[in-house]
């Protein structure tokens, strides 16, 4: 039954950005709300521009009841063209993938997004001509191969005024001074030097304009093989040991070439193994970590678990949740990557050994491991500006192929792999294990992952610094304003107002104290911490449901706690590494020192906020970590207001500070997946298949037991 609401009479027009053009539209489109399996929804207009697909209804025209966490660029019913994953049409209740030219047009349209949203549109009440235009327009503009200059990035850059506030503290690593400052900060300038050999990109278009190499490496060596076989500096540890990376030579070479390259490499290794350099350990990541294809396959399977069409599908797969999750292999890949980062940290910290990461191009897994090691070992990389500078250094300037790996141009699915998402997933594990160590929140990481698909920022839309620089000039476009001035994603004011930006900052971040020598050797209580978590389930359950076990710790525990029994325990780290790992975990955590993630099976969890935020059934109203955060922020606000009153009494009013934290009143109304889930959104008790209800009833009247079942009827609101 469809409750038909009269189509909107007043004209609702899309809010267009500078350079954004309306391409096609369709009126009287019905958008389903698939929360409870019913056909409830709302009428509106579906439009497609050169930037996004957007659904406009009555509410689009008003600013009432706006969420506290509103994105100024991409609204709740907006999908950027780069964010579209797959489009399905429904013909006589059968789903069919839509690509290329269409002979027949569907009665329903389902759009799956890369940020895991699912949109369902009914086109039965739309004029046939409009259906043809909007469906073919959406499929063409979001799924067919594009030229780089056709990206909205260029339209926006040529039309938008550059209103960047210029207060961005992120180091961009576009100048020689930036690299020299980083060398000085890490005290690596004694053994390493920033070089200008690649100015004009005369060495290689894949290398950045400036980079750092060991002082003993000559310019001739760098030029000889276009930068291949040259150790490039990433970071220096406090004890002088350094993390390096190197692009390897192609494996398929004739004998004479291979021998020359081997002799060249031997010479390089000998040079950088002598004093003042530490011993060198090489690690070929292509053989010690999963391949990019394995990573892509695992993530493709993993994301399917969260692209839920309706409530019935959610509950039907619930009883198979753990086996489905384990079969994707995604959490195991995260665990292996974290373990590799621990191995590298142990070499640098304990063995005082230089580590050279080797990969074919040194722009994929090298970026993941080098970034993770720096986050674990350098507290600066755990600040917001430090983390952003790290992404600039290792990924953006370092030459990670965002354009190919995210498949922004739809040129080749073979090149696609979620390498940057893998890093963010690994960093999230650290953030949720050690929250006070990070100046930013998991919401910051989630928003950063969403920004991968917003083509008004140049940060994630080029393969190299060379590609960015050559396209910046606007040679092929007759622009009057000279070179394009691209925005950087690190200017968060473009997407969020100050109140929303507060959600990106961790209010409980343990800021680095000033060193006090008198207190350094004071005794500290040693907390009790289990050194090796159990990898087996204590009491196996016949039905491992998503919501029917340990619901009082829902989001925190169900996503990882029981996964351990599926982890292959034979893959144990070597003794020295295990000793290092256990020894560190037996001591109190220094939030500004080395951080080691817990990697035993149950500790690797699913990033709940990113993957479950659009699924109403996974929300706890008034519960979850956000409820705790809301109380803390309320308390902080109260303390700040008291401080202001005290200051006023001393005639030193500081009125501006009172609003530095977001107002989160009525925390009982918040969803556990706030700020992405709307406050007013309710999850209705789902229409479960009869067989599933029978399974529930057979399990010792599980439905009636408050501690093992969550009533999703919204009574708590």
Automatic annotation (TrEMBL):
Q: Which domain of life is it from?
A: Eukaryota
Q: Which SUPFAM superfamilies match?
A: (Phosphotyrosine protein) phosphatases II (SSF52799), PH domain-like (SSF50729)
Q: Name one GO biological process term.
A: phosphatidylinositol dephosphorylation
User: Which controlled-vocabulary keywords does the entry list?
Assistant: Cytoplasm, Sarcoplasmic reticulum
The cellular component terms of Gene Ontology attached to this UniProt record, alphabetical and capped at eight, are:
membrane; sarcomere; sarcoplasmic reticulum
The record's subcellular locations are: Cytoplasm, Myofibril, Sarcomere; Sarcoplasmic reticulum
Task: List, for all copies, the residue spans of the domain called Myotubularin phosphatase.
Answer: 173-611
Q: Report the coiled-coil segments.
A: none
Annotated family? Belongs to the protein-tyrosine phosphatase family. Non-receptor class myotubularin subfamily.
Protein name, UniProt field: Myotubularin-related protein 12
Q: Which InterPro entries match?
A: MTMR12-like_C, MTMR12_PTP, Myotubularin, Myotubularin-like_Pase_dom, PH-like_dom_sf, Prot-tyrosine_phosphatase-like
